[in-house]
Amino acid sequence: MPPPITSPPSPPRLLAGGDHHPPPTSASSPEHPFLAAHLLLPSPSPSPADLSSPHLPLALAFSFLTEPSPLPRRLLVALHAAGARFPAFYPAFASALLSLPFPLLLPHPRTRLLLAASELARAAAPGFAPLLASLLRRVPFPGDARLLQVFHEHAAFLADEEPQLLASAVFAFLRLLARNRLAPAPSSVECSKDCEECKGAENLQECRGRLVSFCVSMLRDHFHVCALLGRDLVRSLHELVLVPEFQALWRDLVLDRAANICWISTPRWCTAVAVTAEMETQLLFMMNNVKWGDQKRYQLWFARKHLMVPGGEERIPDIVRFICCGYHPTNEIMQSGVIARWAVVGWLLTSCSKGYVVANAKLALFYDWLFFEEVKGSVMNIEPAMLLMVNSVSQYTDITNMLLEFLFLLIDNYDVGRKEAIAQCVRSAFGVLVKKGVVPSLEPLTGCEKLSPVLRQKLVAFLSNTGPEAEEACRKPIDDVSKGTELKRVC
Amino acid sequence: MAQREADASVRTVKLKDLVPAATNTVNTTFIVLDKAAPTAARAPQQARDGEKETTTCLALVADETAAAHFLLWGGECGAFEPGDIVRLTGGIFSYHRGNTLVLRAGRRGRAEKVGEFTMRFVETPNVSEIRWGRDPADARRMVQEAVVSPYSQVFKPLR
């Protein structure tokens, strides 16, 4: 009599996804390479044959993420044995973990992914930095307090070896504190394995005190590292000025140095830390592929997914920073009829419903104006604000009025002690925008009847109190008013 | 012959090349633009069998060549949202309830979410808003007779 046919238990899953997602057996599933490697090497052990297998990085990643709690010791042994023997192993293991679509990870694999990242960091294994950097962009997510623990434990090492990563962590946590005013963490499905590992995973929102003290101690102990963030460090600290721990820090440390740091341009990698990978992909798709007039649906989907969720609207200032400093399109892209950066910013500003978010978004938009230096500053950082003002003036005069009014408020109040220096930077910004041909002249603003007369007079007076460049710009006639779609970048 | 059938089963089409036919051989990828409210529907066969009502939901879908109406069925209604990129295999493009021309997975087809957002699309022509007739030269084929509406009449374009 033949033995009864029992179907083997189906392998564990990495990703959520029901009937309407490609199954892990389908080549189009991101899980597929992991499952395929797992079937070839079901239970990697530290044996020489397993260690030299080309399938080891994916197979070990699969086992590491899915084995029930507690994690079998042989997996850790295999991880470090392979890493020690084969230089390419650690980076391959780390990039396998990076290839998984994080938002779809099931709770247990997600907890384990954090464990793997912290294990790689502990061993200073090549490839750990991009993995940790990608996780920083994900906060807040369930169990993210482990990240704080990793950075806390290895801060001294990171300050020396991976300063950009440590600065990114400080920025990610400062933004989380500032943005959320600690809104509730997104709820998550429970771990189906009901394991202690997942139950014990803490969320950053639950340990606000530790988060604040980590940021404060990094700023005190590794200020030179945090200064890599440039002026966005000061912008973030300003938003937290009401938090007592930051008040003391501000008095002791930042006050004297803020002026100097503000002269450091924010690096691109910094603005990317505060937006998730999905937001970045979708924003770049809009600004590289979506033609003028076709953007409505994309904007709606983006808003539904990223802005109309708890803590979503608070991201808008960071998205504005990402657009201004993190993405500078080429001339070809700008002339290809796709939606321009200023239009995306305009849409984002109108998507804010909370007053403080609008104010922070406008500050984000004008921030590089306040410290603009003709020699060092990038005209692409200040271009979106200018084009938004100029292109809104005829149909959406309210927007131009609102922005111009805010700019004058900033000049007068952002840093009263350095008011004149800031005014000079803003004048220089106006001058360079004309000089580089971003706008042919400032006449669309200074000569616009629809604009508030008070603001217009203020602008003319402000600009006339300056060198010959901007004056000339004011006098230039409007022979061709710029159109966003036809603008050329000359820089 | 078997080889040709196998080829046909993996060949993908663009939405502009859809022609109504009573065969479930449509393989295509599109992005969901909009979704109407779900409605409870009962297929005549099911009504006779006394089965429960099945929810259906009409959606506007598109690729870079054309748009179409897609009929989400049962669990599909909750599984796909506007902005989702969906791959349909073994689908069918035919008249549903006699008069509305829709694309759907059908009993043997399968719709899977394969991505989000990053796909270009056009909303016109909409192949569900075209009147089709028999080809006088070949009665088995359908040919376009007239454009009923350049855009979907159910889901208006957003401007």
UniProtKB/TrEMBL annotation, chain A:
Compositionally biased spans, kind Pro residues: 1-12
GO cellular component: cytoplasm
Pfam families assigned to the protein according to its UniProt record, in alphabetical order: Ints3_N (PF10189)
Database matches in InterPro entries: INTS3 (IPR045334), INTS3_N (IPR019333)
Integrator complex subunit 3 N-terminal domain location: 100-459
Start and end residues of each stretch annotated as Disordered: 1-31
Cross-referenced PANTHER family: INTEGRATOR COMPLEX SUBUNIT 3 (PTHR13587:SF7)
Name of the protein: Integrator complex subunit 3 N-terminal domain-containing protein
From TrEMBL, chain B:
Domain of life assignment: Eukaryota
SUPFAM superfamilies: Nucleic acid-binding proteins
Gene Ontology molecular function, alphabetical: DNA binding
Alphabetically ordered keywords of this record: DNA-binding
Keyword Transmembrane set for record: no
Gene3D superfamilies: Nucleic acid-binding proteins
UniProt entry tagged with the keyword Lipid metabolism: no
Gene Ontology cellular component terms for the protein in this record: chromosome; SOSS complex
GO process terms (BP): double-strand break repair via homologous recombination; mitotic G2/M transition checkpoint; response to ionizing radiation
Name this polypeptide is given: Uncharacterized protein
Source organism of this protein record: Paspalum notatum var. saurae
Lineage of the organism: Eukaryota, Viridiplantae, Streptophyta, Embryophyta, Tracheophyta
